[in-house]
Amino acid sequence: MVQDGTISIRVNGGHRRVTAGISVADLALELGLEPTKVAVERNLEIVPRSTLADVRVEDGDDFEIVTFVGGG
């Protein structure tokens, strides 16, 4: 963590700084995504959607976040 209270993470291959202590659900919202409509992999492990609000983002985490798109 640096002096400004942010941490460094990767999201879908890109570097990003976020506020230390935010939840994965908050991260999704910050990215403009609806937490109930995403699948999240954190450090190669799936994060159950029911726990997104409880799991805290940590410095160095590597996320892959995909959204569900309806259509037909």
Structure description:
- The protein has 72 residues and is mainly β.
- It has one domain (6-67): Ubiquitin-like (UB roll), CATH 3.10.20.30.
- The protein has 1 helix and 5 strands.
- It has one helix at 24-30, and strands at residues 6-11, 14-19, 38-42, 45-47, 62-67.
- A 5-stranded mixed β-sheet has the order 2-1-5-3-4, covered by helices on one side.
- The termini are far apart.
- The mean pLDDT is 93.
Q: What series of H and E elements makes up the topology?
A: EEHEEE
Radius of gyration, taken over Cα atoms and rounded to an integer in Å: 12 Å
User: How many strands appear in the DSSP assignment?
Assistant: 5
Write the CATH fold name: Ubiquitin-like (UB roll)
The largest sheet is: 5 strands, mixed
Strand content: 35-45%
Structural class, from secondary structure content? Answer: mainly beta
Query: How many structural domains in the coordinates?
Result: 1
Task: Please specify the SSE layout and strand pairing.
Layout: E1 6-11, E2 14-19, H1 24-30, E3 38-42, E4 45-47, E5 62-67
Parallel strand pairs: 1-5
Antiparallel strand pairs: 1-2, 3-4, 3-5
